[in-house]
Fold these 2 entries.
Entry 1:
Amino acid sequence: MNGIYDDPWAYELACSFRDVPAEAGVLLRWCAEHRPESAGPVRTVLELAAGPAEHARELARRGLTATALDLNPAMCAYAAAEARRAGVALEVVQDDMTRFDLGRRFDLVVTMLDSTSHLMTLDAFVAHLRRVAAHLSPGGLYIVEMSHPRDRLGDDPSVSTGWTVERDGVQATVRWGEPTDRLDPVTQIADDHVTVTIDGDRVIRDVVPYRFWTATELDAAIRLAGGLGVAGRYGDFGAGADTVPLTDPGAWRMITVLRPV
């Protein structure tokens, strides 16, 4: 039986509650805030564990030279096809986010939608960060979006495990995680049960291993990897007057901006 990551169209539908153009705009605003003026404008972007590569495609629409990398061949094929359909230039690479070597550097690298939850060990996270550092241009940034620790450690999670979306006349009801999906206190891994029901009759079921990372573990991985330092932390996609600190009660993500040191 195919899982949710083997059906990129359904996965993109399930995640269509995201405002990708608005988020891409904030990514570029953070670049303006945290990149040195001598670095110039952002011209190149690499999205890691990109899946359908929605953010890479949106940044390509804005004139950036965009590359999307993912391990899943179905996701890679879908991202390339959607880019062609939209008339935007997108390079798609099938590779592992802990071992990739593209032979060039980028002004901006991003990992979105908590895709670092697929890194199951500290060694894997450190290897990932070292690969990112090796691919950043001078003055480049790595922006990584993770779930807020409150979702797994608090009594009042920041996000719901169930939602309904509608796009192009198609409706999907999504359950990403069930109350019985418990986080293993030793490995910090949970097997999240996923159910996506499309237009009331087509059902996709899957079990997705999820590795929870705390803020202090992220800091440890950054120190162990070397080559990167924290430039900023945010709890939502907002910049300027709309900035949401990670510690704000309304924060629902853990977004970290890293730069070469």
Entry 2:
Amino acid sequence: MIHTNLPRLARLATALSLGLCLAAPVRAADFPSQQMKIVVPLPPGSAPDFLSRIISASFQQQWGQTVIVENKPGGAQNVGAEQVARAAPDGHTLLTAPPPPIALNKYLFPNLKYDQDRFTPITVICSVPNVLLVRNNLPAATLAQLIELARKPGGLNYASTGAGSTLHLTAEILRAKTGTDLVHVPFKGTAEVMTELLAGRIDFAFANLLDAWPHLSSGGMRALAIGSEKRDPSLPDVPSLSETWPDVVSTTWFAVVAPPDTPADIAEKLSAGIRLAFQAPDAAKRLADLRATPVLNTPAEAGRIFKQDSERWGSVIKANNIKGE
């Protein structure tokens, strides 16, 4: 006779069934099923913050779920990125950021607490050229005159949003190309950089055109060069950096990623939702007004851009022995 412990087997069967249910992947048809969060690793007022709030409002309209934008500046954008990397891979927590925490910081910080290559790409929202800005009272009207000033005793200082940002790396390319002694002054976000430049406490800075445009329009600062391959129609009198150095192109993109292992169908649904958000006339006009070029690509296409730019800027970081701060 075989004896069985039926209550125990029943409990095991129930536990196994529950475990299978918990392990079942989240399906796109059921997504989103709860409040969503978009983490921005920079302060309020930054470009990723502005873009995230457009996405947040649209997602709430599209899907009827509350979407909060949480600013988590600090640690060269690693604080916010680490938070998203640890979040559940169900699409309810996202990161909107420029290249550093998605593609560059692995070259700058040997002990990162997250693997940026494992983020799930969602989309690149837009791309903007970086612009060389100078304080209004700096006696330089051209890039050549700026370089001449930098070579004088005392040199010049420049601001950036932190070591390893495309803004910092572009200034380092300028330093390497000219052999000048430039003093780097890092800040937590673009708003601080703009404040210091407007106040005349910083000599120059690279900023993306999205952030720079309002200040250029108001006459608060001047542009001496732009990082696009050719002159931008918005600033036809501002030469491109490539007119001086043909191999130098400097642009910044802003992208959305999800935690590692987020299901592909949810990534596709999020990508389509963001695309729809920026196809709305008001959102499209706001991007156009700020001189940003919409990209709004698929997760696979975004992943290829992350890889290409990681390799391109990574070579600049290595060549100039740049370390994270």
